[in-house]
C-alpha cells in the first residue's frame, strides 16, 4: 500500500511526563514536510541516554516525548527538496545533525553542528511543529529522530544512506554507542601505534573505545570496571589486562601509574562519573598523557581536580559522538564493518521485539547487557 502523503498509525514508546514509565501507544505520524524524511525504523538500540530522558536528567527535553536515538531503517517517503535519500534506501538517523552550512560544519576539526540540541532545541521539527500525535495530543520529537517509533520523521540533515547489504539490526549501533567509543580513540585521542591506553567503564561505549584503541595499534589496553563480568568480552575485543578498582587498596590511578611506570598515554572515561574522570586524568603520563571524556556527566555537575595535573603537561579533552561528522563518516564506518575491520556484533547481547522495551531497560539497569537491540 502506498503510504506517501498519508498519516500512518503505528506503535511507539511514549514518555508522558518525567518519572512515568515508557508506555507503548498507537501514534499518528504525519507525512514529511519540505526537507524532511519519513523512515520506517527496523531496529533500534537502547542507550543509557534514553534512560536519562525517563528520569528527566537529559537537558532541554519537552514531554510528552518519544525517545530513542540509535536506530536504523528504510526511507518510506520524502518531502519536497530532499536530495540525499529516496524511498527504499537503508538509512541511519543521526543524533548529531550535519547541516553542512553552519560554522562548525564548515570547520574540519569539529562535528558539533550548530543545529544540535546544545544550541537549538530538537524537540519539534525545524518549523516548530510536531509530526507525532497520540490521543489527540502533540508528542515531542527527541533529538529530531525519535527511533522508538515504528515510523518517524526527521529533517534531511539528520539522516544518511548506508550500504543496502548491511543488516539493520546490527547497523543501528552506528547511530550512537559504537561510533561514540570507537571515534573517541581514533579521532579525539588519535591513539598512536605502540601506546598504552586505559579504558574506564566497559559497557557498550567503553568496549567500542577498546576496539578503537586496538584498531589504532595500541600495544597495551587496560580495561577498568567494577563489574568483573565485563572482563571476558573486553579481552575478546582487545583489552590486554583488566582491573577492578574494588580489588585494590590504593586508588586505581596509583595502580595504573605503578603498572605502567609513569602513567598511561591515553585514558578514556566511559562511565559518566566525575570520580572516574578525575581518576582517568590522574592516571595519565606526566607531561604528555591525554585523558578523553566520553561518558555523559550528571546534569548540572561541576568538575574539581588538581590543576597541577594539567600544568604538568597532561591534556583533558571531550569527545562528542566520537568526533565524527556523522553524515560523512557513518557510511564509511558501515563499509569498514562489512569488511570485518571490527567486531560490532559482539556488543549486542540481546535482540528483543520492540514490545519488550521495558524488559530491555530493566536488563540495562541491572548491568546484565552490553547493547540491547529492539526490532519492530
Ligand atoms: N569504575 C569503573 N567502572 C564503572 C564504575 C566505576 N566507578 N561505575 C560503573 N562502571 C562501569 C559499569 O559497571 C559498566 O560496565 O561502567 C560501565 C558503564 O557501561 P553502561 O552502563 O553499559 O554505559 P554505556 O552505554 O557504555 O555508556 C557509558 O557513555 O554515552 C555515555 O551516557 C553514556 O555516560 C554513559 C557512558
Ligand atoms: Zn551544521
Ligand atoms: Zn546514545
TrEMBL record:
The keyword Metal-binding applies. Residues 19-374 form the Enoyl reductase (ER) domain. Keywords: Metal-binding, NAD, Oxidoreductase, Zinc. Its cofactor is Zn(2+). InterPro entries: ADH-like_C, ADH-like_N, ADH_Zn_CS, ER, GroES-like_sf, NAD(P)-bd_dom_sf. Transmembrane segments: none annotated. Belongs to the zinc-containing alcohol dehydrogenase family. This is Alcohol dehydrogenase 1-like. It comes from Pogona vitticeps (central bearded dragon). The gene is LOC110083967.
Amino acid at each position: 500500500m502506498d503510504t506517501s502523503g498519508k498519516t500512518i498509525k503505528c506503535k511507539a514508546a511514549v514518555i508522558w511526563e518525567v518519572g512515568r514509565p515508557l508506555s507503548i501507544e498507537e501514534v499518528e505520524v504525519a507525512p514529511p514536510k519540505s526537507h524532511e524524511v519519513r523512515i520506517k525504523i527496523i531496529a533500534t538500540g537502547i542507550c543509557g541516554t534514553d534512560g536519562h530522558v525517563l528520569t528527566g536528567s537529559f537537558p532541554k527535553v519537552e514531554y510528552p516525548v518519544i525517545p530513542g536515538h540509535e536506530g536504523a531503517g528504510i526511507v518510506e517517503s520524502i518531502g519536497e527538496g530532499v536530495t540525499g535519500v529516496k524511498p527504499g534506501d537503508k538509512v541511519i538517523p543521526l543524533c548529531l545533525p550535519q547541516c553542512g552550512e553552519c560554522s562548525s560544519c564548515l570547520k574540519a576539526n569539529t562535528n558539533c553542528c550548530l543545529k544540535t540540541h546544545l544550541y537549538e532545541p530538537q524537540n519539534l521539527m525545524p518549523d516548530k511543529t510536531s509530526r507525532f500525535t497520540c490521543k489527540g495530543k502533540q508528542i515531542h520529537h527527541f533529538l529530531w529522530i525519535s527511533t522508538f517509533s515504528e515510523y518517524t520523521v526527521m529533517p534531511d540533515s539528520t539522516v544518511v544512506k548506508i550500504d543496502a547489504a548491511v543488516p539493520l539490526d546490527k547497523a543501528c549501533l552506528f547511530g550512537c554507542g559504537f561510533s561514540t567509543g570507537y571515534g573517541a580513540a581514533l579521532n579525539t585521542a588519535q591513539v598512536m601505534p605502540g601506546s598504552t591506553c586505559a579504558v574506564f567503564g566497559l559497557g557498550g561505549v567503553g568496549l567500542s573505545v577498546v576496539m578503537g584503541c586496538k584498531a589504532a595499534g595500541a600495544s597495551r589496553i587496560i580495561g577498568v570496571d567494577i563489574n568483573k563480568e565485563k572482563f571476558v568480552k573486553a579481552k575478546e575485543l582487545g583489552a590486554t589486562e583488566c582491573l577492578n578498582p574494588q580489588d585494590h587498596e590504593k586508588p586505581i590511578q596509583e595502580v595504573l601509574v605503578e603498572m605502567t611506570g609513569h602513567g598511561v598515554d591515553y585514558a578514556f572515561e566511559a562511565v559518566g562519573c566525575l570520580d572516574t574522570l578525575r581518576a582517568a586524568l590522574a592516571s595519565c603520563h606526566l607531561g604528555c598523557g591525554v585523558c578523553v571524556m566520553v561518558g555523559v556527566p550528571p546534569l548540572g555537575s561541576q568538575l574539581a581536580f588538581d590543576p597541577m595535573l594539567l600544568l604538568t603537561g597532561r591534556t583533558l579533552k571531550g569527545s562528542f559522538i566520537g568526533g565524527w561528522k556523522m553524515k560523512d563518516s557513518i557510511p564509511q564506518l558501515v563499509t569498514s564493518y562489512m569488511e570485518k575491520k571490527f567486531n560490532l556484533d559482539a556488543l549486542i547481547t540481546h535482540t528483543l521485539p520492540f514490545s519488550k522495551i521495558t524488559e530491555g531497560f530493566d536488563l540495562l539497569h541491572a548491568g546484565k547487557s552490553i547493547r540491547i537491540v529492539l526490532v519492530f
